Amino acid sequence: MKLQSLKSSLMIIMLSLGLLSSSVWAVKGIAFVHGTGANDDALNDYWNPSVISKIADGRPHTVINCEFTEYAWKDGAAGCLAGQLESFIQSKNIDNLVILTHSHGGNVMRWILSNPTWDSRYPAIINVTTKVTAIAASSLGTPLANAVIDGNVFESILGWILGYKSDAVRMQQTSWMANYNQNWLLGTAGRPSLPVYFQSVIGSDVDSSPFDGDSYCGGYPYQLGLEVTQNWLDDCSDGFLECSSQAGAGVVWFYDKSKTKGREPLSHHQSRRDCFNLSNILKNNI
Amino acid sequence: MNSINKKYSKKNLWLLFVSASMFLNLSLTATEVTSITTTQSGYKQAMKAQAMLPQIELASINTRQEMVQYSRALKPEDTPNNPIKKPSTTSKQYVMRVTGADLNKGLPIATSSTESLVRISPVGGGKSSSIKVEELNITTPDGKEMRGLDAMGMNANSKDLQATPFPQGTSIFKFEKSLGAGTFSIKTTTKQANQQQFIVSVLEKNSPYQLKLETDKGHFYAGQIFSAKVNLASLNNNNANVPLSSNSLTSAGNQPLKLNQVKGKIVSPGGKVFEVKFTSVSQNDFRITIPINLPISANEGLWEVQVYTEGKHNNLTIKRDARLAFAYNPVTAIVYNTLPPKVVAKKHIETSVVVDVEYAGRYEAKAVLYSKRNGRLLPLMEARTAMWLETGNNHIPLLFKNALQRIKSLKGNQLILKDLVLTDQTRMSILPQTQSLSTSLAQLTSNQIN
């Protein structure tokens, strides 16, 4: 009886050690994936160094720099993203990858998760990814992309939000995204689920009153522009994307006002800045 | 690889036709078949018309050679792909491409609601050709000429719009609410170069009139019947929320809403335009039903059907445009057969999909393993394999990794492989029939496997 009890105790100790060692050696890493546009310094040009360091909080992390001006499946987009994620995973021995995307970055990430056999690098990335947090994702496209393409003048666009070239913009037109969601991408209503937990953060409005200090977080001119572009969108939008599009894939984590400081809304620009305690909210969920 | 851009030949087409017939036989003898009658005729038409196509260059989007396999466990609540809804889009807006000459003499802007939003963008962008809102005069539907700013609500010039995606030189304004609806005219006070082109778009969010454009499917194969319909409706039957200008009110009768004109285009991913004719089927509906046998485009991206319409209701002119994307591809391969599943290394289940390939390329087969009990299907696992296939008959192995572990507790349940989808990754095309076909490819019980 004593021998039996000793054996059981030893077993429990060994199991605990095993669990302990696996949690000690699990390496969690964070990847930040930008939205539409070509970036060679997304840390400074798209995000902001203080936002990244606040969210990463000393953990291994990488800031992706790719050509998200191309269609999501292209080598410059998903191919580039896969290459940089693979390098990060291998160089830091990451076995628990958390990915934060902004805007169209959510679609490019969803391309990888939805088409695991497209590229031999994809399955390994999917297997170590534990969570994707898609901030202001253009999952169902945006009427603003329709408006920009209307009349066929898109070749001359110079816009920070959508980028300089047209294919990523074309892809984000609402009827195009409906087609891609139906045939090539997972995670939207009526489609099979994604292989990885995919949660969305939703920006629901734009404050642009010059008398409200909150309008200046991230830069007042951006808020002014997004207030105008809201005219193309429905009542719940971050100035670039309707809430329904942002909530279109995976599960909704939260609508901005439910968690932000002072219940402030996050415009499409502010949702990649350290506005209204967003960085801490994201950090605490890693 | 060098056969990606292979041209159609009579021999190849004959092979395709034979393959198609075999595929249809297979489908008809399978145990669970849905919608086969419609897809069968569509597929035959596609094959027949594919033979009529001119020589074509095919896209080469993904030419990776290596085999990649992937499988994952599914949760009982995981939804399989739902039946495809008819793709559709709605519109409360229209776009005009006009010249500086048009704006110099006065451009009519038809509106059917208050506070219509107008955007003016110079084609090619640039400050030199931009028109500032203060450089506009506006004539109201009542014939009153006003300084532009007095006739506008919200307005913004290019310098206020730098943080937006619109081209440089864009200006935007809304007509002042009290001016009502009807046809306005906008005229520049600074002379524009006659040849300079502008895009003028009008968005009428407050209007009850909505255009709907719908296609039968989101993916067409060369030679299939392409069908689309257009409908103009008033979302508010009594039209109470359209405060007309006084001029419009006096002459407004009680005429019914009528869609007078629909101009249609099909546009390839490369921008090639094909005019198509929509015909009226009722007062507010137009339709098109034609065999689609346009040259296949090697460009990536989707095709679009575009409509430019004009309707009337009482004294109001209602203009609406809409664009709807669809995929258009040739049939490059078809599923010919599937082999019975077998147990591999005492833990995996493997089956093989036999594919008849007409155009060499990278193809993916995927399927879902279900368990069936008391008539209810529960998804267990999904497996996918993609690999490069040359012309002719090929096998794609599908490996459900560690499947036995998952089905151990399901003794006695029937196991069914379903939802087989064959995808051409080189041309980015979901191949016909398999997309929505619900065919039981193999049936076995977990007892048999154990």
Can you offer a commentary on this structure?
Chain A is an alpha/beta fold and 286 residues long. Chain A has one domain: 3-Layer(aba) Sandwich (Rossmann fold). Chain A has 12 helices and 8 strands. In chain A, the strands form 2 sheets. Chain A has a 6-stranded parallel sheet. In chain A, α4 crosses α5 and α4 (75-91) crosses α6. Chain B has helices at 10-29, 36-50, 100-105, 246-251, 403-407, 446-449; strands at residues 68-73, 88-91, 93-99, 107-111, 117-122, 136-139, 145-147, 152-156, 171-175, 182-188, 197-203, 209-215, 219-221, 225-234, 258-267, 273-277, 279-282, 285-291, 303-313, 316-329, 333-344, 348-357, 361-373, 376-389, 392-400, 414-424, 429-430, 442-445. Mean pLDDT of chain B is 81; it is low at 1-42, 243-252 and 434-443. In chain B, 12% of the residues lie in helices and 46% in strands. Chain B starts with 9 loop residues before the first helix and ends with a helix. In chain B, the strands form 6 sheets. In chain B, strands 1, 23, 24, 26, 27 and 28 form a 6-stranded antiparallel sheet that branches. In chain B, β21 and β22 form a beta hairpin. Chain B is mainly beta and 450 residues long. Chains A and B meet through α6, α7, α8, α9 and α10 of A and β1, β3, β5, β11 and β20 of B.
- Taking the alpha carbons of the first and last residues of chain B, their distance comes to 42 Å
Strand content of chain A: 5-15%
Strand order of the largest sheet of chain A: 3-1-5-6-7-8
User: Uncertain regions of chain A: pLDDT < 50 for 5+ in a row?
Assistant: 17-23, 153-165
Outline type of chain B: elongated
Give the radius of gyration of chain A.
21 Å
Structural category of chain A = alpha/beta
Name the chain pair with the biggest interface and residue counts per chain: A-B, 55 and 68 residues
The total count of helices of chain A amounts to 12
Name of the CATH homologous superfamily of the largest domain in chain B? Uncharacterised protein PF16024, DUF4785
